[in-house]
Specification:
Layout (H helix, E strand, L loop, with lengths): L2 E8 L2 E7 L1 E7 L4 E7 L3 E6 L2 E5 L3 H15 L5 E6 L4 H6 L7 E5 L3 H10 L12 E4 L3 H6 L5 E7 L13 H10 E10 L6 H17 L2 E8 L7 E8 L10 H6 L9 H6 L5 H8 L3
Parallel strand pairs: 7-8, 7-10, 8-9, 10-11
Antiparallel strand pairs: 1-2, 3-4, 4-5, 5-6, 11-13, 12-13
Length: 283
Protein backbone atom coordinates (compact mmCIF):
# COMPACT_ATOMS: atom_id res chain seq x y z
CA UNK A 1 0.00 0.00 0.00
CA UNK A 2 1.32 3.44 -0.92
CA UNK A 3 1.87 5.98 1.87
CA UNK A 4 1.28 9.64 1.03
CA UNK A 5 1.80 12.82 3.04
CA UNK A 6 -0.92 15.37 2.25
CA UNK A 7 -1.20 18.99 3.36
CA UNK A 8 -4.37 20.96 2.74
CA UNK A 9 -3.59 24.35 1.18
CA UNK A 10 -7.29 25.27 0.90
CA UNK A 11 -10.45 23.20 1.46
CA UNK A 12 -10.24 22.28 -2.21
CA UNK A 13 -6.47 22.08 -2.82
CA UNK A 14 -3.84 19.86 -1.27
CA UNK A 15 -0.18 18.97 -1.81
CA UNK A 16 0.60 15.26 -1.68
CA UNK A 17 4.03 13.63 -1.67
CA UNK A 18 4.57 9.90 -1.88
CA UNK A 19 6.46 8.76 1.21
CA UNK A 20 9.00 5.94 1.21
CA UNK A 21 9.04 5.75 5.00
CA UNK A 22 8.38 7.72 8.16
CA UNK A 23 11.60 8.31 10.08
CA UNK A 24 10.28 10.02 13.20
CA UNK A 25 7.06 11.02 14.93
CA UNK A 26 6.53 12.55 18.38
CA UNK A 27 4.62 15.27 20.17
CA UNK A 28 6.63 17.89 22.04
CA UNK A 29 5.25 20.30 24.61
CA UNK A 30 4.29 22.59 21.73
CA UNK A 31 3.51 20.58 18.59
CA UNK A 32 3.62 17.31 16.68
CA UNK A 33 6.90 16.71 14.85
CA UNK A 34 7.25 14.31 11.91
CA UNK A 35 10.09 13.47 9.56
CA UNK A 36 9.46 11.55 6.35
CA UNK A 37 11.60 10.34 3.46
CA UNK A 38 10.53 10.55 -0.17
CA UNK A 39 12.07 9.82 -3.54
CA UNK A 40 11.33 13.22 -5.06
CA UNK A 41 11.97 15.64 -2.18
CA UNK A 42 14.31 13.68 0.07
CA UNK A 43 13.70 13.96 3.78
CA UNK A 44 11.13 16.49 4.92
CA UNK A 45 9.90 17.95 8.20
CA UNK A 46 6.31 18.71 9.16
CA UNK A 47 4.98 20.41 12.29
CA UNK A 48 1.36 19.75 13.24
CA UNK A 49 0.87 18.36 9.75
CA UNK A 50 2.22 21.42 7.92
CA UNK A 51 5.26 21.14 5.67
CA UNK A 52 8.23 23.13 7.02
CA UNK A 53 11.02 22.12 4.68
CA UNK A 54 12.27 19.46 2.32
CA UNK A 55 15.86 18.60 1.50
CA UNK A 56 15.11 19.25 -2.17
CA UNK A 57 13.96 22.89 -1.98
CA UNK A 58 14.90 24.25 1.47
CA UNK A 59 17.86 26.15 -0.02
CA UNK A 60 15.49 28.58 -1.75
CA UNK A 61 13.80 29.70 1.43
CA UNK A 62 16.93 29.84 3.58
CA UNK A 63 19.05 31.70 1.03
CA UNK A 64 16.38 34.31 0.36
CA UNK A 65 15.51 35.03 3.98
CA UNK A 66 19.21 35.31 4.92
CA UNK A 67 21.26 36.76 2.05
CA UNK A 68 18.87 39.59 1.14
CA UNK A 69 19.27 41.40 4.50
CA UNK A 70 22.94 40.45 4.86
CA UNK A 71 23.73 41.84 1.41
CA UNK A 72 22.01 45.15 2.16
CA UNK A 73 23.52 45.60 5.64
CA UNK A 74 27.18 45.18 4.71
CA UNK A 75 28.38 45.74 8.29
CA UNK A 76 26.00 43.38 10.06
CA UNK A 77 27.85 41.52 12.82
CA UNK A 78 25.25 41.00 15.56
CA UNK A 79 22.32 38.86 14.41
CA UNK A 80 19.13 37.67 16.08
CA UNK A 81 17.23 34.70 14.64
CA UNK A 82 13.76 33.91 15.94
CA UNK A 83 12.44 30.45 15.14
CA UNK A 84 14.49 28.57 12.54
CA UNK A 85 14.95 25.44 14.64
CA UNK A 86 15.76 23.46 11.50
CA UNK A 87 19.12 25.30 11.30
CA UNK A 88 18.90 26.48 7.70
CA UNK A 89 19.16 30.20 8.47
CA UNK A 90 22.01 29.49 10.88
CA UNK A 91 23.86 27.56 8.17
CA UNK A 92 23.63 30.49 5.75
CA UNK A 93 24.61 33.10 8.38
CA UNK A 94 27.71 31.13 9.34
CA UNK A 95 29.06 31.65 5.83
CA UNK A 96 29.74 35.31 6.72
CA UNK A 97 33.12 35.62 8.40
CA UNK A 98 32.27 39.11 9.66
CA UNK A 99 29.43 37.84 11.86
CA UNK A 100 30.55 37.77 15.49
CA UNK A 101 27.32 36.88 17.33
CA UNK A 102 24.20 34.91 16.47
CA UNK A 103 21.47 34.78 19.10
CA UNK A 104 18.87 32.19 18.15
CA UNK A 105 15.53 31.87 19.94
CA UNK A 106 13.67 28.62 19.22
CA UNK A 107 10.83 27.80 21.60
CA UNK A 108 10.87 24.03 20.99
CA UNK A 109 14.15 22.23 21.84
CA UNK A 110 12.87 18.99 20.34
CA UNK A 111 12.72 20.57 16.87
CA UNK A 112 16.44 21.28 17.06
CA UNK A 113 17.23 17.77 18.33
CA UNK A 114 15.19 16.10 15.61
CA UNK A 115 16.65 18.23 12.82
CA UNK A 116 20.20 17.64 14.00
CA UNK A 117 19.58 13.89 13.87
CA UNK A 118 17.49 13.53 10.73
CA UNK A 119 18.23 16.67 8.65
CA UNK A 120 22.01 17.17 8.99
CA UNK A 121 22.20 18.91 5.59
CA UNK A 122 20.24 21.78 7.13
CA UNK A 123 21.07 21.55 10.84
CA UNK A 124 24.84 21.48 10.38
CA UNK A 125 26.01 24.62 12.24
CA UNK A 126 24.62 24.33 15.75
CA UNK A 127 28.16 23.85 17.07
CA UNK A 128 29.40 27.17 15.67
CA UNK A 129 31.02 29.12 18.56
CA UNK A 130 29.26 32.35 17.54
CA UNK A 131 25.85 30.84 18.31
CA UNK A 132 23.93 31.35 21.55
CA UNK A 133 20.79 29.20 21.54
CA UNK A 134 17.81 30.17 23.73
CA UNK A 135 14.84 27.85 24.13
CA UNK A 136 12.18 30.37 25.03
CA UNK A 137 9.32 32.41 23.60
CA UNK A 138 10.61 34.87 20.99
CA UNK A 139 7.89 37.38 21.87
CA UNK A 140 9.07 37.50 25.49
CA UNK A 141 12.77 37.41 24.58
CA UNK A 142 12.61 40.47 22.33
CA UNK A 143 10.89 42.65 24.94
CA UNK A 144 14.07 43.10 26.97
CA UNK A 145 16.38 43.91 24.03
CA UNK A 146 17.25 47.43 22.94
CA UNK A 147 19.63 48.59 20.15
CA UNK A 148 21.48 45.26 20.16
CA UNK A 149 21.17 43.79 16.67
CA UNK A 150 22.10 44.73 13.12
CA UNK A 151 19.77 42.16 11.56
CA UNK A 152 16.77 40.28 12.94
CA UNK A 153 15.52 37.29 10.94
CA UNK A 154 12.07 36.06 11.90
CA UNK A 155 11.79 32.52 10.54
CA UNK A 156 8.47 31.68 12.15
CA UNK A 157 5.85 29.06 11.48
CA UNK A 158 2.46 30.23 10.21
CA UNK A 159 0.42 32.71 12.33
CA UNK A 160 -1.20 30.15 14.63
CA UNK A 161 -0.01 27.86 17.42
CA UNK A 162 3.56 28.53 18.68
CA UNK A 163 4.18 31.15 15.96
CA UNK A 164 1.06 33.24 16.49
CA UNK A 165 2.70 35.88 18.71
CA UNK A 166 5.36 36.58 16.08
CA UNK A 167 2.82 38.31 13.81
CA UNK A 168 1.59 40.96 16.28
CA UNK A 169 2.09 44.72 16.28
CA UNK A 170 3.70 44.43 19.71
CA UNK A 171 6.27 41.98 18.38
CA UNK A 172 7.24 44.12 15.38
CA UNK A 173 7.49 47.19 17.61
CA UNK A 174 9.83 45.33 19.95
CA UNK A 175 11.93 44.22 16.97
CA UNK A 176 12.27 47.87 15.96
CA UNK A 177 13.45 48.70 19.48
CA UNK A 178 15.93 45.81 19.51
CA UNK A 179 17.62 46.95 16.29
CA UNK A 180 20.55 49.35 16.06
CA UNK A 181 19.93 52.70 14.26
CA UNK A 182 20.61 51.15 10.83
CA UNK A 183 19.08 47.76 11.64
CA UNK A 184 17.09 45.49 9.32
CA UNK A 185 14.34 42.98 10.08
CA UNK A 186 13.30 40.27 7.63
CA UNK A 187 10.37 37.92 8.14
CA UNK A 188 8.60 35.17 6.27
CA UNK A 189 5.53 36.96 4.95
CA UNK A 190 3.19 34.15 3.89
CA UNK A 191 1.77 33.65 0.39
CA UNK A 192 -0.38 36.14 -1.54
CA UNK A 193 -2.16 33.59 -3.70
CA UNK A 194 -4.90 31.80 -1.75
CA UNK A 195 -7.38 34.10 -0.03
CA UNK A 196 -6.83 32.92 3.56
CA UNK A 197 -3.05 33.17 3.18
CA UNK A 198 -3.29 36.59 1.54
CA UNK A 199 -5.33 37.94 4.45
CA UNK A 200 -2.64 36.80 6.90
CA UNK A 201 -0.02 38.38 4.64
CA UNK A 202 -1.88 41.70 4.54
CA UNK A 203 -2.35 41.69 8.30
CA UNK A 204 1.37 41.21 8.89
CA UNK A 205 2.31 43.86 6.32
CA UNK A 206 -0.04 46.43 7.85
CA UNK A 207 1.53 45.96 11.29
CA UNK A 208 5.09 46.15 9.96
CA UNK A 209 4.35 49.33 8.00
CA UNK A 210 3.07 50.88 11.22
CA UNK A 211 6.37 50.09 12.98
CA UNK A 212 9.09 50.73 10.36
CA UNK A 213 9.78 53.72 8.08
CA UNK A 214 11.12 51.43 5.33
CA UNK A 215 8.95 48.41 4.52
CA UNK A 216 9.18 46.41 1.31
CA UNK A 217 8.12 42.94 0.22
CA UNK A 218 10.00 40.49 -1.99
CA UNK A 219 9.25 37.06 -3.42
CA UNK A 220 10.62 33.61 -4.12
CA UNK A 221 9.21 30.49 -5.70
CA UNK A 222 9.27 27.43 -3.44
CA UNK A 223 7.65 24.29 -4.91
CA UNK A 224 6.35 22.72 -1.68
CA UNK A 225 4.91 25.89 -0.10
CA UNK A 226 1.24 26.78 -0.67
CA UNK A 227 0.84 27.90 -4.32
CA UNK A 228 4.63 27.86 -4.73
CA UNK A 229 4.65 31.67 -4.52
CA UNK A 230 6.07 32.93 -1.23
CA UNK A 231 6.74 36.39 0.15
CA UNK A 232 9.27 37.86 2.59
CA UNK A 233 9.13 41.20 4.35
CA UNK A 234 12.09 43.59 4.47
CA UNK A 235 11.77 46.29 7.13
CA UNK A 236 14.42 48.79 8.16
CA UNK A 237 15.04 51.92 10.18
CA UNK A 238 16.80 53.54 7.23
CA UNK A 239 18.40 51.12 4.73
CA UNK A 240 16.54 50.57 1.44
CA UNK A 241 16.76 47.01 0.06
CA UNK A 242 17.64 48.09 -3.49
CA UNK A 243 19.07 51.62 -3.29
CA UNK A 244 21.46 50.67 -0.46
CA UNK A 245 22.41 47.34 -2.01
CA UNK A 246 25.98 46.97 -3.36
CA UNK A 247 26.17 43.87 -5.58
CA UNK A 248 29.89 44.25 -6.19
CA UNK A 249 30.63 44.15 -2.47
CA UNK A 250 28.50 41.05 -1.94
CA UNK A 251 29.98 39.20 -4.91
CA UNK A 252 33.47 39.81 -3.50
CA UNK A 253 32.51 37.65 -0.52
CA UNK A 254 32.50 34.69 -2.93
CA UNK A 255 29.59 32.92 -1.23
CA UNK A 256 28.36 30.12 -3.49
CA UNK A 257 24.56 29.95 -3.66
CA UNK A 258 22.02 27.84 -5.52
CA UNK A 259 19.16 30.36 -5.74
CA UNK A 260 20.14 33.83 -4.55
CA UNK A 261 22.12 36.06 -6.91
CA UNK A 262 22.73 39.80 -6.89
CA UNK A 263 20.67 40.13 -10.08
CA UNK A 264 17.81 38.22 -8.48
CA UNK A 265 18.12 40.44 -5.39
CA UNK A 266 16.98 43.45 -7.38
CA UNK A 267 14.39 41.56 -9.39
CA UNK A 268 12.68 39.85 -6.44
CA UNK A 269 11.35 43.22 -5.23
CA UNK A 270 9.44 43.62 -8.52
CA UNK A 271 6.09 42.13 -7.58
CA UNK A 272 3.09 41.05 -9.67
CA UNK A 273 0.32 43.63 -9.98
CA UNK A 274 -2.15 41.69 -7.83
CA UNK A 275 0.38 41.49 -4.98
CA UNK A 276 1.12 45.21 -5.21
CA UNK A 277 -2.61 45.89 -4.93
CA UNK A 278 -2.95 43.66 -1.87
CA UNK A 279 -0.12 45.55 -0.20
CA UNK A 280 -1.44 49.00 -1.17
CA UNK A 281 -4.84 48.16 0.27
CA UNK A 282 -3.38 47.96 3.79
CA UNK A 283 -0.60 50.55 3.62
Amino acid sequence: MDLWFSEMHTPGVKLSIKVDKQLYSARSEFQRIDVFESADFGRFLSLDGYMMLTERDEFIYHEMITHVPMAVHKDAIDILVIGAGDGGVLRELCRYERVRRIDMVEIDPLVVEVCREFLPQTACKFDDPRLRLYHEDGLKFIRSRESEYDVIIVDSTDPFGPGEGLFTKEFYGNCYKALKPDGVMVNQHESPFYSEDSIAMQRAHKRIVQSFPVSRVYQAHIPTYPSGHWLFGFASKKLHPVRDFDPVAWNKLDIATNYYTTTLHVGCFALPAYVEKLLRDVE
